[in-house]
Amino acid sequence: MSLVIADPVQRNDLGAFVERALRLDDAAVVRLRQRADGLIAAWVGTGLDVLAVRVVAGTVSPADMSCAGDQLARGLREADAAGQVDTGFPMDSAWRGAL
Fold this sequence. Notes:
alpha+beta; 7 strands
């Protein structure tokens, strides 16, 4: 699994989004999907029967994966100089089905 967000402003934006989701649900799962326009859509359930999404520039491989919010938040804070983010273990089984 690979997530690269080279722009630190974009990484911080996604990090803030994930931190807000974790305040609502400390076990939040984030689904990352690569879009055809080169952007990544990050989806999270709010616990209020609402999906929230944030879009940032970057690449994700595989093109559709899910990860634990706490691990993603940590990875975004600790990204290397190239913007490589450790997303932790895949959590695809925690989020099955269409968006």
